[in-house]
Structures are given as structure tokens and as C-alpha cells.
Design a protein that fits this description.
By secondary structure, the chain is α/β, with parallel strands linked by helices. Helices cover 54% and strands 12% of the residues.
């Protein structure tokens, strides 16, 4: 979990930054999670890795702020993806609920009462790419579940 969610972004950033700095422009956007901003039961390793990547983003943004390179994280809640399907299956298996009931549990954790779409996550990434004044942020895309 740490290798995938923290070490891999660290290595990618380390490889990409020199070229971006030499050109005086670059945008780095890491997909984190709202789990980077709060603790949840049964996801300690995932949460720790996402907390770490948010720290990485903030430190890199501070170091690179005067170079034309920005570094941000997008922090989705539950998104309608196969990863969430796996979570739904785990909830159903653990609780004896149906898959539909388990999915509704996740939907209800978000104030918008639905899963976030992949397009909504992509739009947040695009904001980070297009707006050079957005730097060092962990942008929540979770329907208002975690307010910062």
C-alpha cells in the first residue's frame, strides 16, 4: 500500500521535477483520497499512505512555488469505480448485507447521497492544471463530506 500510494508518486515527482523546473512550468497532480484527511476504521494502511502523499504534495509545492511548477492533490470520496465495487463487496461479505444495501451505505456517507463520478474527479484535476495559483492543495471531491 505504501509502495503504490506514496513511494510511487514520490519517485514520479522526483523524476519529473528537473525537466519542469528547467522549462519554468509544470503541473503535478496526485490523486489522493479524503482518507488523506481523516482516519477511518479498517483502512489504516490506505489512510496512512494517503496522509503521506498529501504531506509529500504540500512539501513539494512549497519547495517549487517559485519555479513555475505547482503540485496538488485531488482527494475524492467514494467514486463510482471498480475500486468502490470491491469496497461494496467487502462490506456485503462482512455485514451480510446485499451489494445494493452496501453501496447505499457508501452513498450515504457523502452529503450528495451518491457516488462521485470519474468526470467530477477529472474536472478537479483539470482545475489544478489550468490554474497556476492553485498550489499545495488537497482538493476534496466528495460532495461535502470532509470540509476544509
Amino acid at each position: 500500500m505504501l509502495d503504490l500510494n506514496l513511494t510511487a508518486p514520490f519517485r514520479c515527482i522526483r523524476c519529473a521535477v528537473p525537466g519542469m523546473v528547467s522549462r519554468g512550468w509544470g503541473r503535478i497532480v496526485v490523486v489522493a483520497s479524503v482518507a488523506a484527511k481523516r482516519g477511518e476504521p479498517r483502512i489504516a494502511a490506505y489512510s496512512a499512505s494517503k496522509h503521506g502523499v498529501l504531506g509529500l504534495v504540500r512539501s513539494a509545492a512549497a519547495e517549487l512555488a517559485r519555479t513555475g511548477v505547482t503540485v496538488n492533490a485531488v482527494c475524492p470520496g467514494y467514486v463510482d469505480t471498480p475500486m468502490t465495487d470491491d469496497s461494496v463487496a467487502q462490506i456485503a461479505a462482512r455485514t451480510g448485507r446485499s451489494l445494493d444495501e452496501a453501496r447505499v451505505l457508501l452513498e450515504r456517507q457523502q452529503p450528495i447521497r451518491r457516488l462521485v463520478s470519474t468526470d467530477e474527479v477529472a474536472q478537479a484535476v483539470l482545475l489544478c492544471v489550468e490554474n497556476g495559483a492553485v498550489n499545495g492543495q488537497g482538493i476534496n471531491v466528495d460532495g461535502g463530506a470532509v470540509q476544509s
